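Backbone-to-sequence.
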């Protein structure tokens, strides 16, 4: 880009590229396109993700001329933490705001031997699963790659995560707001930065994409990048599943299972994690458990049973402890590996399906976010 005159400078600044939107391959292309050596990509990635430096002027190995050029045409623009809530059990929830007025929630769940970061991929969700409060608020927009990886960057900073020392975050799950496979083109480069040694350096089994069952997306994901897969199943028969996850009408259980088998086919020792939210009287009958055993025997898998987390206005209730235990007993006797997920962060509404950012009045909220963003941006 040749920048001459004041007006052009203004235009260039107005459309500066956010380098957080690129993984290594994207950054190499970017540097080539501006007549620079592709290895600059590695330098930038290390500054941003190893040293948490986002100011080009502090990137001392880039050379003054390149730093000046980058200041004109590019930027490293992070989202902003608008609110942080810490639960009594150590769970942390951040409300993260984006330039333009949207916000999502990102949650950190510490356990004795690991720390899981739950990352959002969209503002709201278009899938309208009947038991999920994110679905109830509707869909606003896809996040960009920078907005997805920016959540990890901000959480790592807030937690004091060190890449080669105190690894507060050991696992990342794309289980926050949104359907990651419906924002494929932005999600994959973000996954690539999570995985890359030049980025956060997480092993493939420690980065999980969770889907409501977008079958073509599962096939594409397998080709695009090596990560773990979780599938929100919630019922072993189409009739019940369609009532919970409307996407099942388009991609019924048999097709979904075939995609899951394919996903792990060449990956020895890999399994698909199936999530199953237990809802009183809907999908928690012993017969459902027996059918689930038959279904999941066909896929190398683990089963994660999640007691339903109620939210205001929901028609559903959580299954009783007895029913949950009975369900788990049947699936385990059937040979499945099944755990019941403990609800975490209850006092701060950070549990599965409760991520809404309390969107009761979207217009007002959007205005509030804009004001806060303006206050926190220099
Ligand atoms: N769209 C993706 C990721 C977001 S949902 C997916 O569907 O997998 C993350 C998980 O929380 C899913 O398994 C979802 O089914 C579950 N969930 C949603 N609402 C819930 C609720 N109210 N109680 C318990 N689990 C819920």
């Amino acid at each position: 880009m040749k920048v001459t005159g004041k007006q052009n400078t203004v235009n260039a600044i107005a459309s500066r590229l956010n380098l957080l939107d690129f993984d290594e391959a994207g950054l190499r292309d970017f540097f080539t396109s501006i007549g620079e050596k592709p290895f600059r990509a590695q330098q930038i990635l290390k500054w941003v993700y190893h040293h948490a430096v986002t100011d080009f002027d502090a990137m001392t190995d880039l050379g003054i001329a390149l730093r000046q050029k980058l200041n004109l045409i590019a930027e490293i623009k992070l989202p902003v933490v608008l609110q942080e809530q810490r639960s009594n059990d150590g769970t942390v929830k951040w409300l993260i705001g984006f330039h333009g007025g949207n916000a999502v929630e990102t949650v950190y769940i510490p356990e004795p031997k690991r720390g899981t970061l739950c990352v959002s991929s969209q503002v709201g969700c278009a899938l309208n699963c009947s038991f999920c409060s994110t679905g109830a608020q509707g869909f606003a927009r896809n996040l960009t790659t920078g907005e997805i990886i920016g959540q990890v960057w901000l959480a790592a900073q807030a937690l004091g995560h060190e890449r080669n020392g105190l690894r507060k975050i050991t696992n990342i799950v794309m289980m926050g707001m949104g359907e990651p496979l419906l924002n494929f083109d932005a999600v994959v480069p973000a996954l690539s930065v999570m995985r890359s040694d030049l980025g956060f350096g997480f092993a493939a089994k420690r980065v999980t994409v969770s889907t409501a069952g977008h079958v073509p997306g599962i096939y594409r994901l397998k080709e695009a990048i090596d990560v773990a897969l979780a599938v929100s199943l919630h019922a072993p028969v189409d009739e019940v599943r369609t009532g919970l996850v409307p996407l099942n009408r388009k991609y019924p259980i048999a097709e979904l299972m075939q995609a899951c088998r394919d996903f792990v086919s060449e990956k020895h020792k890999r399994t698909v994690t199936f999530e199953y939210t237990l809802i009183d009287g809907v999908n928690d009958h012993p017969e459902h458990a027996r059918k689930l055993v038959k279904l999941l025997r066909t896929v190398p898998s683990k089963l994660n049973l999640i007691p339903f987390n109620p939210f205001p206005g929901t028609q559903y209730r959580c299954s009783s402890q007895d029913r949950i235990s009975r369900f788990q007993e049947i699936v385990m006797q059937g040979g499945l590996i099944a755990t019941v997920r403990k609800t975490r962060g209850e006092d701060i509404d950070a549990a599965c399906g409760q991520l809404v950012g309390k969107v009761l009045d979207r217009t007002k909220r959007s205005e509030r976010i804009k004001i806060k963003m303006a206050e926190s941006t220099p």
